[in-house]
Amino acid sequence: MNKTRSKVFVVDDNASSLSVVRVLLKAVYDVYPLPSAYKLFDTMEKVIPDLILLDVNMPEMNGYETIAVLKEKPQFMNIPVVFLTARDDEGSAERGIDLGATDYVTKPFSGPLLLRRISNILLMEQQKQELQECYLTIKELQK
Predict the structure, then answer these.
(1) H/E element, 109
(2) What is the pLDDT of residues 35-87, one digit of tens each?
(3) What is the CATH number of domain 7-141?
(4) Where do the structural domains in the chain lie, given as residue ranges?
(5) 92 contact partners, CB below 8 Å, separation of at least 6
(6) Model confidence, pTM
(7) pLDDT over 80 (residue 2)
(8) C-alpha span between 78 and 57 (Å, rounded)
């Protein structure tokens, strides 16, 4: 069975954070390190990710503004977004989840735990898609 690797976009203006996450994930996923939200939107014109890791504190367009734009667009609204940020206050996490994030992970993070969280989210997305396809098949058979 030919299984394609999931594409994970990592959006962070800090080059060392991008590097650390890329090194952690590259053995399992196709990783796209992106230094800004504008680069994210540029790249998404060519490649659609399976998951986005998004920093909150970025110049020009912060993570909250970025997710708001993503969730407005039908072609991007179902892509899971995980905030990966140094902001560790409860209000920031609640705001991120309220805006549509799937999860909120604070830096510094545990590498194995981050890998597990990503894996779980991608598995849930795959199962959700399979259920939707099954539902459509059943609806078609009922006609």
Answers:
(1) none
(2) 999 999 999 999 999 999 999 999 999 999 999 999 999 999 999 999 999 98
(3) 3.40.50.2300
(4) 7-141
(5) 56, 85, 104
(6) 0.91
(7) no
(8) 23
